[in-house]
């Protein structure tokens, strides 16, 4: 009876209104057809540009075929939530201060995965209260979902040349989340791309990971290297990483559309533990327990203390030589992790210190 009694056009408008009440800046609806994107995904995977992210290929075609991931999916509700912390230290100033640690702005507050999923669940609950039981599943970067493609098809923005979603009203400083549903909701129209001839994001990438418009080689991307990559950071890329210890925002910082980006009103995305402007040596001195406590509830927590130290060691290797930096690094030259010791040894070599164990 639901299909006979429900006015899906009216329901769609209510869903968008409820979404804004729940803190999303925009909600829109698309079909689950990602056939064009699937071709590009397969080409990208075949060229091994996903690096160690085996999960990108381990789900077969479920990533590009929503109805295979969630049987019965007819439409996808995409939602957008701003995350730029309002009081964070200026990113460009931190990047220009080589003894400071730069952390991607999205990771300065609480972990967005749980926050978005909880809001999407509340939105699903509102739909159920309105029409009764229906089939659905919520996602926020938590399963094989092509969220940028789905959001672009729904008209929430367009894919920029750096591969992220761009909005004329909100730039790119936002998270995306989805609800796969079995509801035949009316579809929203996509919007055209507005990058034009601009190539600032491509030119700004420190490691030249954006190898062509809309094409990123993850193996060179600093976000991948500092977060997803579990082993030794390739030697040719270390000096290009600067003081970026968790993620990289350079392509977003230079994008003209981010001049009009809005800061977040979400308390959960506010800066925690002064991570927007901490000294690298202070962070290097954190014990494993300090790391666990101070990153609890943060996206940073999932890389673990070992990779955290690895990343900071590289950043200190790129910093100006000072007695404080050398002493901080030497405190870890006998660390129980071979991965940490290797990167500390490399960093010390950058400052003219002994490098007997440095990988060649």
Automatic annotation (TrEMBL):
One Pfam family this sequence matches: QueG_DUF1730
Binding, [4Fe-4S] cluster 1: 195, 198, 201, 255
Every 4Fe-4S ferredoxin-type domain range: 183-215
Pathway where it operates: tRNA modification; tRNA-queuosine biosynthesis
Active site: 141 (proton donor)
UniProt keywords, alphabetically: 4Fe-4S, Cobalamin, Cobalt, Cytoplasm, Iron, Iron-sulfur, Metal-binding, Oxidoreductase, Queuosine biosynthesis, tRNA processing
Binding-site positions, cob(II)alamin: 63, 141, 165, 176, 223, 248-249
Protein residues bound to [4Fe-4S] cluster 2: 205, 221, 248, 251
Function text: Catalyzes the conversion of epoxyqueuosine (oQ) to queuosine (Q), which is a hypermodified base found in the wobble positions of tRNA(Asp), tRNA(Asn), tRNA(His) and tRNA(Tyr).
Protein name from the UniProt record: Epoxyqueuosine reductase
Species: Sulfurimicrobium lacus
């Amino acid at each position: 009876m639901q299909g006979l009694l429900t006015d899906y056009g009216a329901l769609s408008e209510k869903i968008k209104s409820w979404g804004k009440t729940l803190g999303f800046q925009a909600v829109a609806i698309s079909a689950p057809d990602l056939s064009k994107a699937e071709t590009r995904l397969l080409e990208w995977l075949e060229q091994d540009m996903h690096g160690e992210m085996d999960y990108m290929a381990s789900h077969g075609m479920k990533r590009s075929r929503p109805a295979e991931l969630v049987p019965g999916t007819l439409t996808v509700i995409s939602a957008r939530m701003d995350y730029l912390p309002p009081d964070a230290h200026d990113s460009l100033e931190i990047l220009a201060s080589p003894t400071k640690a730069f952390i991607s702005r999205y990771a300065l507050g609480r972990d967005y995965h749980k926050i978005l999923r909880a809001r999407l669940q509340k939105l699903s609950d509102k739909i159920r209260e309105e029409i009764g039981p229906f089939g659905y599943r919520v996602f926020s970067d938590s399963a094989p979902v092509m969220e940028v493609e789905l959001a672009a098809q729904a008209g929430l923005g367009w894919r920029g040349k750096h591969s992220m979603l761009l909005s004329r009203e909100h730039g790119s400083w936002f998270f995306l989340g989805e609800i796969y549903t079995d509801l035949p909701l009316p579809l929203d129209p996509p919007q055209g791309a507005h990058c034009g001839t601009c190539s600032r994001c491509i030119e700004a990438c420190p490691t030249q990971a954006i190898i062509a418009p809309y094409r990123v080689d993850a193996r060179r991307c600093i976000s991948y290297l500092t977060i997803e990559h579990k082993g030794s950071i390739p030697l040719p890329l270390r000096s290009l990483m600067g003081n970026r210890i968790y993620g990289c925002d350079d392509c977003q910082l230079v994008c003209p559309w981010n001049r009009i980006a809005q800061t977040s009103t979400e308390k959960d995305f506010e800066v925690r533990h002064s991570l927007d402007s901490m000294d690298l040596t202070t962070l290097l001195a954190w014990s494993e327990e300090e790391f666990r406590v101070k990153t609890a509830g943060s996206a940073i927590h999932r890389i673990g203390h070992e990779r955290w130290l690895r990343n900071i060691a590289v950043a200190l290797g790129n910093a100006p030589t000072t007695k404080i930096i050398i002493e901080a690094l030497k405190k870890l030259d006998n660390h129980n992790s071979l991965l940490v010791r290797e990167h500390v040894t490399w960093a010390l070599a950058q400052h003219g210190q002994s490098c007997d164990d440095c990988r060649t």
